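Agenda item 2: 6-O-phosphono-beta-D-glucopyranose complex prediction
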Amino acid sequence: MDEYQVPKGFLWGVATSANQVEGSWNEDGKGISIADCERFDPHQDLADYKSVNKMTTQQLKVALNDKTSKSWGKRHGVDFYHHFREDIKKLADLGITTFRTSIAWSRIFPNGDDEKPNEAGLKFYDDLFAELKKYHIQPIVTLSHYEMPLNLVLNYNAWYDKKVADMFVRFSKTVIDRYHDIVKYWIPINEIDSIIRHPYSSAGLVEDRFPNHNFEAVIYQAMHNQFIASAQIIKYIHKNYPDVKIGSMITATMVYPYNSDPANSLKARQVMRESYDFSDIQVRGYYPKSLLLRLKKKGIDLKITDSDKKLLKENTADFVAFSYYSSICTAVDTTGLKVTKANRTKGVYNKYLPTSQWGWQIDPVGLRIILLDLYDRYQKPLFILENGLGAKDELTSDGKVHDQYRIDYLKKHIEQMLISMQDDGVKILGYCIWGTTDMISASTTQMSKRYGLIYVDLDDEGNGSYKRYLKDSYYWYKDLLAHGNVID
Ligand code: BG6
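Presented output:
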């Protein structure tokens, strides 16, 4: 890619989340969060992601009583809490104009139900945002990225509980009031559809805490509470800070029919629609009829009041953000077909695509199709908030990481994005590589699944110097950012 064009104001950046990098899980008054209870398990079944998808109350109690941090990856992260100035300086040198992260709810309201916010926690974000401002980097902030206070799981009913949704709104208003001057883009909930795939890490839902309930119904009701809380936050921002934008965010995994059998095509379309249901609600402002019919078939009676409907209708998202990593195929009859994985979901293997070391298939054209789909559907600006490759990297004896595979991945995806803007007329606000420094994997709690442009010397068990090294992909991105032409 030599020279390319992007529209004026296009944001080039990198993305991460508080729980995967910050560490300092109990420093300066931070409370324990659900992420701090996810332990690296060397025997985990990576195919099923069981370790972080299904937590029990007993496991949470064990976590609560263990005050160590070494094998609890998200307790130490990559110590961004103490390295943030060094990391931001390195990232600023890339030439990025945006940095996406989240604010850890448990740093601001350590138990979720505290009367007052924790000033020491706020001070960390004051300093972080000031540092970004110094380099003219715009922060994009997610309010909930897999890190709610554990107290809200053990002493309330997590996101199933309306009181918890109210506490989230209170937390959100606190940080929006404090940072609206510098943070102009907000996302209420990371990958809001993820509650269906991993209800513990997305919403603190632990099945054994709902003994007399249909757990699927619990998940959907919690989903509704997340939509209502998000709409309240959208309302608050639009009313008080008209120059600030707030978006919807979904996990966009492209789904193809396994072959040209129309029945498989229909199935693929249905699976995609199920994921677009989530952005439909936040962008169009109402539940798609097909979702309500599906729930009815399952015997789930979602409690949606008239005032909920009004709130959703009147408070919709300004832009549509998404993460994109890979694609899958689907078929009506999957007997005998090879299975593949993609971001905590499974599908049928696609013989036309290469596969990452973690079994996710690499599909840049899938990104272009997603962009077309979402733009045709909503005609709202899009934001690619996450795109990257998790891979094993090797640090050479001279302190280098030759990650040509990551460069190939990023280059091909960025090319498709540029084509989509230039040839398909899709409006895109920005693009963030998932990966600032390396960080702890959300799904597997591994350190060895590396996404960063900057290598961190740390292993899965929490051993290492935390020293940072610039990868080849870092230099490649820097070069790319230096060669763009801005057009009106
Ligand atoms: C996204 C999440 O779904 O995927 C990130 O928002 C996550 O938190 C990323 O890290 C990659 O997934 P994983 O499981 O490989 O870390």
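Discussion summary: The pocket of 6-O-phosphono-beta-D-glucopyranose is lined by residues 17, 20, 190-191, 251, 323, 343, 386, 390, 434, 441-444, 449 (CB under 6 Å).
Owner for follow-up: CH.
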